[in-house]
Design goal:
mainly alpha; Serine Threonine Protein Phosphatase 5, Tetratricopeptide repeat; globular
């Protein structure tokens, strides 16, 4: 019984130490000037990422769809791809990836989101190719 108490205490301590921390403003979305993701963005982009981080996929999707066509279109598109992956719609995400990547090389966040869609669709080789492209865009 003492061993069980020690194990439970250890698990509790680890769980408390690894509990999610509040997301800092600078970490709400991976903004990077090299990736055309510096903003300023419509408030809907911020609300969309907040909703996505909170797990409210429906509200996040509404916010990102409203922001499409504006200065944050790339960020909104990445958000929509992430939502569709999380919501179990990898085909929809992959179609959006094809559209987004048709216009150029793609940003690291876009490539990673598209790779995640291919992982969900059980296309590991395409996912690996996209992860490699994302990695090549990152410094260091």
């Amino acid at each position: 019984m003492l061993k069980l108490g020690v194990v439970l205490s250890a698990l509790l301590a680890v769980g408390c130490a690894s509990a999610p921390r509040p997301v800092a403003e600078r970490d709400r979305f991976p903004l990077d000037p090299r990736e055309q993701l510096t903003g300023p963005f419509d408030d809907g982009i911020g609300r969309g990422w907040d909703a996505l981080l909170a797990g409210d996929l429906a509200r996040a999707e509404e916010e990102f769809q409203r922001a499409e066509g504006g200065p944050g279109e790339l960020a909104a598109g990445i958000g929509l791809i992430e939502i569709w992956v999380l919501d179990g719609h990898p085909d929809r995400a992959i179609a959006a990836c094809h559209d987004a990547l048709r216009t150029g090389e793609g940003t690291a966040p876009l490539l990673v989101a598209c790779a995640e869609a291919h992982v969900e669709k059980s296309n590991p080789m395409e996912a690996l190719r996209l992860y490699d492209r994302a990695l090549a865009r990152l410094p260091g």
